[in-house]
Write a structure and sequence with these properties.
- Keywords: Membrane, Transmembrane, Transmembrane helix.
- This is DUF3159 domain-containing protein.
- With 228 residues, this protein is mostly helical.
- The protein is built from 7 helices and 2 strands; from the N terminus they run ββααααααα.
- Strands 1-2 form a two-stranded antiparallel ribbon.
- The radius of gyration is 20 Å and the shape is globular.
């Protein structure tokens, strides 16, 4: 990911008054409208910008284009909101350092190695959150869609988020290992497009499984009687 702006809550969340555990997931179209622009901005566009600059301007031009893309996003947010999230500034600093190291070593591998290792760390974070009883998938889900505490405390909901955290741990681990193999065994052009396509497909399948599982969980939980 290039831009790490925190997502805004999704609209149209409905739940019962305090004491109940019923919850309704926002419509799929609303979630897609929320997620798609961020996916294009954070995944597809940086790859396209880097590859186009690599073909036209060479490695150094591609590195400059990548850094320009990130700081352009920072400037756009500042003009729109008057402030820039701290995480986004750290992302800009990280990309600058990576680009500087890649330019100094004349190796694009250096530029892509750090985020790949970061993906491996994210996988470990998801995995570690399960035995701790604080599933990371639940934290990320509630950041995007506010959910009532009574719903989150339901045993079936807790089990769901533990299992989904394991799923996403495996997804990120596969992503990292495949990316490392591609990075050290294929050209940068092949790495950019094949890796992006495989990771996108893998992520889409994981999202589909997560949504399907969550809807099944909702069906069972919402079908139970609400405590008096």
């Amino acid at each position: 990911m290039t831009l790490l702006d925190r997502p805004a809550p999704l609209p149209s969340v409905q739940h019962v008054p305090a004491g109940g555990h019923c919850f309704e997931l926002p419509r799929l179209t609303a979630m897609l409208r929320h997620a798609l622009p961020r996916f294009v901005e954070g995944v597809i566009a940086p790859v396209a910008v880097f590859y186009a600059a690599l073909v036209l301007l060479g490695l150094n031009g591609a590195l400059v284009a990548a850094v320009t893309w990130v700081y352009g996003g920072i400037a756009w947010r500042y003009l729109r909101t008057g402030s820039v999230p701290g995480m986004l500034m750290l992302a800009g600093l990280g990309v600058t350092v990576r680009a500087g190291l890649a330019a100094a070593t004349h190796s694009p591998v250096i530029y892509f190695l750090q985020p790949t290792l970061g993906t491996l760390l994210v996988s470990m974070a998801f995995l570690a959150s399960v035995p701790l009883g604080r599933p990371l998938a639940q934290k990320l889900a509630t950041d995007m869609v506010p959910m009532p505490e009574a719903f989150l405390e339901h045993a079936r909901v807790r089990r769901f988020f533990l299992r989904i955290s394991l799923l996403w741990s495996m997804v990120f681990l596969t992503n990292a290992l495949f990316s490392l193999w591609m990075l050290f065994n294929e050209s940068i052009a092949t790495f950019l497009w094949v890796r992006t396509g495989v990771v996108t497909l893998l992520g889409a399948l994981a999202v589909a499984v997560s949504l399907y599982g969550f809807r099944r969980c909702l069906h069972h939980v919402n079908g139970e009687p609400v405590p008096a």
